[in-house]
Design a protein that fits this description.
Blueprint (H helix, E strand, L loop, with lengths): L14 H5 L6 H14 L4 E5 L7 H6 L3 E6 L2 H9 L9 E4 L12 E7 L8 H11 E14 L2 H16 L11 H10 L2 E13 L3 H9 L14 H15 L6 E12 L1
Helix pairs in contact: 6-9, 8-9
């Protein structure tokens, strides 16, 4: 059975409350993006997976013309509802990242963030971004990474072990290394620019509240009949493995992919 892309329609009402860019990140990110767009001589930018506009709206406040594509109509509606006179109105398209209704070479810059792991044909989506990119253009991938990525990997490996014991297999989504390999295969050369870093105080109690509330999209596919007991078992394991304090440093970066 073909795996479908994940739409955030179901999370549109809580998206900004649960996934807003932290204070001290939104401004530096928008300023860095504007600098990169100017360097690329881009008079407008395509954002794939524009969502509620957490990246597009600050750019629009800075005079950038954004063309935003998203598969979730309700997310686009939330974006429109937050626009004001200070924004240059974006051009919004309801559409699939794997089939962009855009002409070849129509943008000198493409921006994306937290989207490829949601797309079933994510490699085709990257190819579509490359197709829409003009010669000499850039694809800018906004990424946030924990310094303790090893802890994230260990934690998800435990989830998969618990699911497998109950006959369930979670959909495998790409990691940054997988995405980077495809950008490189399509002829991209990467330059990484750090935008900000932030110490985030997190506890195991906070994480389990988020997890049990199915805030993260990775939880949406897990059957309800096994999820509560997996949460209980994972929490007991994590308390022994990591302790209560899960604080970490999050590094916010732009991976700027240049294409000849």
């Amino acid at each position: 059975m073909t795996q479908k892309s994940i739409s955030f329609d179901q999370a549109a009402d809580v998206y900004d409350a649960t996934r807003a860019l932290p204070q001290g990140v939104e401004g530096p990110l928008a300023d860095a993006l504007v600098e990169e767009l100017r360097a690329a001589k881009a008079d407008r930018v395509l954002e794939v997976g524009v969502g509620t506009g957490r990246i597009a709206r600050p750019l629009a406040e800075r005079g950038v013309r954004v063309c935003g594509v998203d598969i979730a109509r309700r997310m686009l509606d939330r974006l429109v509802g937050q626009l004001g006179p200070q924004h240059i109105a974006p051009d919004l398209l309801l559409g699939d990242a794997t089939r962009l209704a855009l002409a070849n070479g129509s943008f000198r810059a493409v921006v994306l963030c937290h989207i490829l792991h949601l797309v079933s044909g994510w490699e085709q989506a990257v190819a579509e971004m490359r197709r829409a990119l003009a010669p000499g253009g850039v694809i800018i991938h906004f990424c946030d990474r924990f310094l303790r990525e090893d802890r994230v990997d260990t934690g998800f490996a435990k989830w998969d072990e618990l699911f497998a014991a109950r006959g369930f297999s979670r959909t495998k989504r790409p990691w940054f290394k997988d995405m980077n390999a495809v950008f490189a295969r399509l002829g991209g050369t990467r330059r990484t620019r750090e935008v900000a870093r932030r110490h985030d105080e997190r506890t195991l109690m906070w994480l389990m509240k988020e997890t049990r509330g199915r805030v993260g999209s990775w939880t949406w596919e897990i059957p309800e009949e096994i999820f509560p007991e997996c949460c209980d078992e994972w929490e007991r394991w994590a308390r022994d493995e990591f302790g209560e304090d899960l604080s970490d440093v999050t590094v916010y970066e732009l991976d700027v992919w240049s294409f000849a």
